[in-house]
């Protein structure tokens, strides 16, 4: 219980820090209009406390975007769609500095032995300067069985750092490191390489290369690839997509003998309000060793 209090207090302090240091540069509009080819306009326009949907477009010379969600915003000149979670299984880049958002997750996994494992997450995420992002989670895992074990409670702390401003390096690589602590289980560390970009106008994609390493117990090591592709049907309101998870896992007593789990399925994103995002993905197991199905429901609210 003390760790819950520590994490919650840390989240409040981090939120206060982010609001206090929200950089004005994240709200800047840099314009290079085509009708003044000899001297680009460098006028800076400030918008007080702009949220990501309010941020003015940063016009990149020689590039235009038909979709509003693909306009460039903020000091990293990232597409607007990257400022909000786009996929449930796959992370991309970092959010703009100064942004704060709460997310709630539900993830039921339908095992091939007939049991259902339910994971719930309460998350606060913060965009920090210099292409950093901090995410704090409270987590509950439970087997939905009247005779099952009590729920496991704990927390996760995640840090991301993007290597460069958007578009400077192919794939916009971002380093991700997460610490997972459940009170009745060994701690885990989870490094990831995040890649993301646009395959073409209206086609958004991401891919993650993941390691998940248990620090005690059976010392299970899991290696995972996740991917997602999405296409807007209604600009900034409704998108459809496809997501996948491929995982290989072994334990210390049987290294090299991997259990394999391959899941694939459709996803949707719905934004009923500018500050609210709903992501849903339903993945089916495609191999004999795979779970029967896994579903993700994620709801986000930007402050």
Description:
There is one protein chain. The strands form 2 sheets. Strands 3-4-5-6-7-8-9-10-11-12-13-14 form a 12-stranded antiparallel β-barrel. The protein has a single domain (83-302), classed as monomeric porin ompg (Porin, Beta Barrel), CATH 2.40.160. The chain has one helix at 2-20; strands at 72-73, 78-79, 100-110, 116-128, 132-143, 152-162, 174-182, 188-200, 203-214, 221-234, 238-250, 259-273, 276-285, 293-302. It has 303 residues and is mainly beta. A hairpin with a 5-residue loop joins strand 7 (174-182) and strand 8. Mean pLDDT is 86; it is low at 1-9 and 11-48.
Indicate the topology.
Layout: H1 2-20, E1 72-73, E2 78-79, E3 100-110, E4 116-128, E5 132-143, E6 152-162, E7 174-182, E8 188-200, E9 203-214, E10 221-234, E11 238-250, E12 259-273, E13 276-285, E14 293-302
Short synopsis of the structure:
With 303 residues, this protein is mostly beta strands. The protein has one helix at residues 2-20, and strands at 72-73, 78-79, 100-110, 116-128, 132-143, 152-162, 174-182, 188-200, 203-214, 221-234, 238-250, 259-273, 276-285, 293-302. Strand 13 (276-285) and strand 14 (293-302) form a beta hairpin.
């Amino acid at each position: 219980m003390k760790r819950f209090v520590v994490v919650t207090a840390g989240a409040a302090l981090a939120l206060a820090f982010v609001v206090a240091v929200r950089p004005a540069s994240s709200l800047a509009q840099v314009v290079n209009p085509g009708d003044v080819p000899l001297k680009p306009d460098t006028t800076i326009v400030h918008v007080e406390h702009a949220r990501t949907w309010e941020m003015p477009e940063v016009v990149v010379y020689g590039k235009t975007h038909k979709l509003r969600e693909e306009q460039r915003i903020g000091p990293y000149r990232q597409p607007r769609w990257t400022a909000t979670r786009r996929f449930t299984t796959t992370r991309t880049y970092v959010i703009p500095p100064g942004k704060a958002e709460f997310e709630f997750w539900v993830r039921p996994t339908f095992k091939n032995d007939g049991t259902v494992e339910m994971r719930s997450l309460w998350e606060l995420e913060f965009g920090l300067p210099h292409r950093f992002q901090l995410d704090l989670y409270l987590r509950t895992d439970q087997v939905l069985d009247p005779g099952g074990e009590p729920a496991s409670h704990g927390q996760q702390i995640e840090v991301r750092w993007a290597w460069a401003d958007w578009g400077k390096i192919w794939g916009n690589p971002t380093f991700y490191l997460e610490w997972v602590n459940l009170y009745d289980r060994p701690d885990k560390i989870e490094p990831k390489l995040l890649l993301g970009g646009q395959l073409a106008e209206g086609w958004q994609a991401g891919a993650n290369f993941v390691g998940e390493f248990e620090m005690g117990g059976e010392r299970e090591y899991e290696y995972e690839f996740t991917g997602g592709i999405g296409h807007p049907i209604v600009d900034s309101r409704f998108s459809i997509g496809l997501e996948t998870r491929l995982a290989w896992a072994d334990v210390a007593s049987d290294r090299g003998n991997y259990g394999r789990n391959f899941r694939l399925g459709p996803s949707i994103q719905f934004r009923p309000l500018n500050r609210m995002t709903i992501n849903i993905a339903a993945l089916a197991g495609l191999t004999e060793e795979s779970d029967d199905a896994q579903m993700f429901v994620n709801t986000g609210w930007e402050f």
